[in-house]
């Protein structure tokens, strides 16, 4: 009787779906996914940064006040780009072909007004730009456009090398009621201490550049006009001085191959030009 009874029990277990194998089963491999994984959408491409995007409202208002269209600034091959490198500096003149800054300006937290050109724009080739240059130098001297600076304002020059006579000649002819003084390295601190504006080039060594930077720190609100005397070439002297002004030189070769120019019929077109520079847009709150 045991055998039929055992057979009956086994049959009942099989019918009820129970597994009579006491061994643990191997884990079952999950089936391959048949539905394609959802691909996340690509992030939208950021719009091109224009000069208007880069400038704060205060900087844009300043540029519109200081520049008069049409603009004719064509430095040719013998020039560098002057690139903003801090929150207080901004592009002032953009090349029409490349969108690179050919001149930049700024106002530091200490109140220093500064302006940098990638060449020395005082020779006859730049005559169409002279009215704008006069306005800009007037702004450096007084903080206002035009010729409202005090009579007898002292303009110091330093490290201009062979460009010294050209620069001082232009200043005498175009800026009325100023006094010119040339600073040497040994008396630089005292010379700048008596100045209302200093016009500097990059004709010096690194030790002299550091002396200039230190002297400028001593008079932190003294306006500075920087003229890039090495033309398209890069300069260690220039790097040190420009860095103290929140500026930097452009890439190697400057404008030699691009031969760009800031020739604009109106300022609105320049403001809407796409910038070609590795800096983030300025905060627009100021």
TrEMBL record:
Cross-referenced Pfam families: IMPa_N_2
InterPro entries registered for this protein in UniProt: IMPa_N_2
Residues covered by region (Disordered): 31-54
Lineage top rank: taxon: Bacteria
Occurrences of domain Immunomodulating metalloprotease N-terminal (ranges): 62-256
Originating organism: Gallaecimonas pentaromativorans
Protein name: Immunomodulating metalloprotease N-terminal domain-containing protein
